[in-house]
Amino acid sequence: MAPSSRSPDSRRQQAARAAAALGARREEANRYATLRHFALVWPAGVVAFALVTWACVALGLDESAAKCIYLTAIVFLSLIDSFVSSIGFCVIAIFCLDYFFGQPPFTLRIPSPGHLPDLATFLAASLVITALVRHAHKLGRAQREQASLLDLTHDTIVVRDAAGAITYWNRGAERLYGWQKNEVLGQPLHELLKTRFPVQQQEIAGDLFATGHWEGELISTRRDGEQRVIASRWSLQRGPDGEPMATLESGTDITDRKRAEEALRQSEATYLAEAQKLSSTGSFGWDIESGRVFWSEQSFRIFGYRTDVVPTIGHVMQRIHPDDVERVRNRVAHASSGQHSLDFEHRLLMPDGTTKYLRVVAHAIEADQLRYAGAIMDVTAARQTELQLQDAQAELARITRLTMLGELSASIAHEVGQPLSATVTSAEASLRWLDRDPPCLDEVRTGLTRIISEARRSFQIVGRVRTLAKKNPVQKAAIDVNEIVNESVALIQREILRHGVPLQLKLANDLPHVFADRIQLQQVVINLVMNGIQALDGVTDRPRELSIETRTGPAPDDPVIIAVKDNGVGISDENEKRLFEAFFTTKPQGMGMGLSICHSIIEAHRGTIRASNNAGYGATFECVLPRASADGIEKISRNGRSG
């Protein structure tokens, strides 16, 4: 199909020609209507003047009476036609007055010079009166049209005077309230409707007089007694002296909308309550100044109170676990002093003896008045799962320690055997000194002292091994990292000597404490040192080096670092990413759990462990642990245990 050859300009020109033709037809139709109007009005006017003239002549009326009747006819005819027609009818009236009522009658002569001004006065008066009547008629018609427009609206439009009496009542008001206009005119508006105001009526009147307008929601009562919610708008009309004359009140019935909004709010509240129930999350509000506390339904469930109880901070404190009371009191005190956000965990001790774990998150919504809104999350299930996971990790760590002790059994036996052998030797020597005559008691005393020393040494070694093997719960406390390093080295000293590895300790002085479990941290240090020893086993082309370094930074929040460094074979690129994975090992007889357990232990202490190759040979493992600050201790121990 060939495209149209018409251009946009030609189409616009065609449309313009069509519009011009339509306008011409309308103009022609208007001219025809005007001619038809004149064809009807003017003959009717002439006939009317003829009848008026005949009646005046037949009744023998004088010129003055005829003027009044003619003026009435002119005014009437002017209302149905234009002002130009009024001028024409005035000229006809003057002709009739002069011809039929002048002296002598039935002539067109002016009887006297004084008669001409009379006719001119009549003409002027007729035109003025006609103009005024036409203007008043137009105003009246405009008012009627406006009133009819006001009746078309669905809104209520009511006008009341300064005394409050109804002076106008549109059809919208009739439809909504049930009273007809003639029934309510003159009655006091708000007494009739039994209006309920959102604030005192005097306050509304003050705003209206001050600004000239007011808007708000009212509750009005219909004729049948039903109450409706009205969005009302008031406008004040003042007189020339500035005094209030009337008030126009327009209103929109928003009852159905308010009901829909309320239904939506209830629906949202229902869904919110159900969602809070499913997520074990409650909401609350707290006005510190007044002390008032507001709870959602789920918050009542979490704290174990009936919903008819008026919640207070006292009700909260009654449920706080005794070990957490001081911490919660401190948080409440901080919030009362202007801290604008809260985020902490604590426990509840319920009346049935069970323990709940809660997380509280809130922020100030009005900082000046210290009003808070927040959420209460029951994290008991998550915390119990976390505790079970920690128990499993602790048990796995213990099993790994036992495996490690098995690997070190020969060294441990040698460490225990040395002091036992020394003890036997000292005991035999002491017996020989006693058998002398006289006995050499000083030598016996020296031997016994040596026996006690070696026995204590054996006891310490056995104690360390027993501690590592024992199944104890995690016990975190503020500890000295340097002590952990020294104790760990003492336990594996024989293994270090057996492999012929020189160990260098670079322990920083005045090192801040960390909040950790002593046994677990010893396990990490021993594991990393043993890995370093094994990495040096195959090194023969250079002096072997192994060091343990502890350090921290100058800032108050700088962490404490334990670094184990060797100059062994290092870490290959393919192994670097999998180094801390469970069951990953590069040793023929290894289980692949050592570094994985170290990683879990350090993470449980809110720390990190990392490994990197050195610039020359070997690798460095670093354990980064937070300092034992009050905030850090609280974060680590949120689960309610010491660990």
Shape: rod-shaped
Helix content: 40-55%
CATH class of the largest domain: Alpha Beta
CATH architecture of the largest domain: 2-Layer Sandwich
CATH fold-level topology of the largest domain: Heat Shock Protein 90
Roughly what fraction of the amino acids lie in strands?
15-25%
Oligomer: single chain
Q: Which runs of at least 5 residues are low in confidence (pLDDT < 50)? A: 1-5, 588-592, 635-643
Notes on the protein architecture:
The protein is α+β, with helices and mostly antiparallel strands and 643 residues long. The protein folds into 4 domains: 37-138, no CATH class; 153-253, PAS domain (Beta-Lactamase, 2-Layer Sandwich); 260-378, 2-Layer Sandwich (Beta-Lactamase), CATH 3.30.450.20; 392-636, 2-Layer Sandwich (Heat Shock Protein 90). The protein contains 21 helices and 17 strands. It starts with 7 loop residues before the first helix and ends in a 7-residue tail after the last helix.
How would you summarize what this structure contains?
Helix content is about 55%, strand content about 20%. It is of the alpha+beta class and about 650 residues long.
Keywords:
5-stranded antiparallel β-sheet; 54% helix; phosphoprotein; 643 residues; alpha+beta; Beta-Lactamase; disordered N terminus; single chain; rod-shaped
Task: Give the SSE layout.
Layout: H1 8-59, H2 63-79, H3 83-101, H4 115-152, E1 156-161, E2 166-169, H5 171-177, H6 181-184, H7 189-193, H8 201-211, E3 213-221, E4 227-238, E5 244-253, H9 255-279, E6 281-287, E7 292-295, H10 297-303, H11 313-319, H12 325-336, E8 341-349, E9 355-366, E10 371-378, H13 380-407, H14 409-435, H15 441-469, E11 476-479, H16 481-491, H17 493-498, E12 503-507, E13 514-517, H18 518-535, E14 546-552, E15 560-566, H19 573-576, H20 594-604, E16 608-613, E17 619-625, H21 630-636
Parallel strand pairs: 12-14
Antiparallel strand pairs: 1-2, 1-5, 3-4, 4-5, 6-7, 6-10, 8-9, 9-10, 11-13, 14-15, 15-17, 16-17
